[in-house]
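Ticket opened by: R.M.
Priority: normal
Category: complex prediction / small molecule

The reporter submitted a protein together with adenosine-5'-diphosphate and asked that the result be attached to this ticket for the collaborator who will pick it up next week. Submitted input follows.
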Amino acid sequence: MAVRVPEIFGEMVFSDKVMKERLDKETYLAVCRVRDGKETLSAATAEKVANAMKDWAIEKGATHFTHWFQPMTGITAEKHDGFISPVGGDRVIMDFSFKSLVKGESDASSLPSGGLRSTFEARGYTAWDPTSYAFVKDGSLYIPTAFCSYGGEALDKKTPLLRSSDAINRESLRILKLFGNKTAKKVTAMVGAEQEYFLIDKSVYEKRLDLIHCGRTLFGARPSKGQELDDHYYGAIKTAVSDYMKDLDEELWRLGVLAKTKHNEAAPAQHELAPIFTSANLATDQNQLTMEIMQNVANRHGLVCLLSEKPFEKVNGSGKHINWSLMTDEGENLLEPGKTPTTNAQFLLFLTAVIKGVDEYADMLRISVASAGNDHRLGEKEAPPAIISIYLGEELDGVLSAIEEGAPYNKKEKGDLKVGVSALPPIPVDSTDRNRTSPFAFTGNKFEFRMVGSSSNIACPVFVLNTIVADELSGFADRLEKAKDFNSELSLLIKETLKNHKRVIYSGNSYSDEWKKEAKKRGLLNLETTVDALPLYDSEKNVSMFERQKVLSKSEIISRKEILLENYANIVHIEALTAIDIANREITPAVIGYQNFVLTELEKKKAHGDLPTRLEEELLKKLACLSSDYSKKLDVLNKDAEGFNRKIGNLEKSVYCKEVLLKDMKEVRAVADEMELIIGKTFITFPNYEDILYSVKY
Ligand code: ADP
Ligand code: MG
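Result attached by the on-call engineer:
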């Protein structure tokens, strides 16, 4: 049956439209003012909203409500309470007080706090975020909330995002005012997150302990057919996948997610879903929801959706490109090159702020996408390297160098165009971005940050981006507000900034080895792993930037660093233990079993007399050699995995994981994978790469 998209779209969301219909005008306007940060929520308004929300949710089948939040675990958290309330005489009513809407006490002592909260004062609280929308799912009303410690310190991913939205709004408005815009009231970061994922059959997934525990394979020889033929990218979508995508779209539409684009990606079994961009906060909530629904719908279809960054070695990993721009409440995209000299100069100033911010806080951008999983993807010649650089495109590169040199800009086909900030020509920007290797590319009217990993909560990269740009804009505004001659100061500022920060602009192939050398010469950071990047989080430069913009305090930053390091160490340690289990219980028996089989066959032949035995003998020699190597390497991994528990502190543990455990695992894997290619298939209990990557057949 055909889906009537306009009818079902957002039907499970307590959206602006629903609020307008269900709240009296005064209450609705009060909510709008709260949303815009113009006033705080009064008890009377909250009471009315809570009631309307409850009645609406019950009509949608809800019996419970939950404060929905995004702790530092990376996934969302929820605890459901019924609306049920006894009124005596064995009767109950459905009740939802405004207090339950606005604030939740949460004994979340098992959620990570990085030392901000000790278990004896475990209380944290969740606070309603009116800038996002409540929705009904699985019989519960979900209320998006921020999660803080009792003292108000951020314990989640959303709080810094909300604070950064304030910062970018405040500082952008200062700049707009300088350019004579007195009507814009709000500037919002807009985000569209393209989500990549793998879809495999549940039957193969269930036989792989590594996929179950770690979301990625720890063993597996290369398949004889990978993505060499480029026959998957944009290829015809198989029926099972297409059925899945249809179901997924429909569920997302009901929840108000603007799911728009879907296609096969480069690797076999890899796909992408992209929504239409929306405000950063909503995009973050919706991406978290999307990842969850992707997994649930897959389960219903007998499939498993893998979101980890590098599920298969030597096969392209999954990212989540974040498209980012700044939009005024009047609909002006501040990253859109303008048509008049003034709007063009304004565009150039915002562009320059991004360039400066990315150069000065490249470490923070790297940190914002750092995770054990993403380390395997970055720098694998399929994803941007760990070096942060900006791609602007030929046209803009030309304009910027002309400005820097104070020379006229020669646009080839149309002859000379005079460039001076006070009288800029329209900048023709080629919005087709021909460089797909850049980690941070300007794509006509937005930036695309391509380093983000597929499983990551986008709140982190977005709040970092918002804050660094806000901070640069703030510095620019300080200077320009004092200027005697605005135009000449502006011109000077842009010129100076470009000169000082152009090292971060790079148009070549970011995947190449030459770029690594060149980047080093330019003094750009190459923080290859999470463990290299995280210690820079609380450097003086970063702490003062986050404090200046009131986004994170020093103690919040330290707590975040600790949580991320701990998380990294735990993940790698679990991977090491899983690798040991698979080796001992599945690979070793397969090797011994196969050796025995070949040996028995050889003996049978020998007993027979004159049959040739070269095949068996050579195979046995090869297996003997490989298996003894494997046995030695496995011993090392075993011993080192025990050593993990003797390490103290998150940094020491993480360094040990990176320098010892990951290396040991790699060594064991290399031999195991080599053996996999010569051992009879029936002797191996788990599905191989081919079985997995081509598990969805029709
Ligand atoms: P591509 O694969 O070429 O990068 P897609 O169409 O897959 O392009 O994704 C582009 C993403 O960028 C979409 O999510 C889209 O909504 C988003 N986007 C488009 N314009 C803007 C903008 N001004 N600000 C933020 N995101 C945007
Ligand atoms: Mg993209």
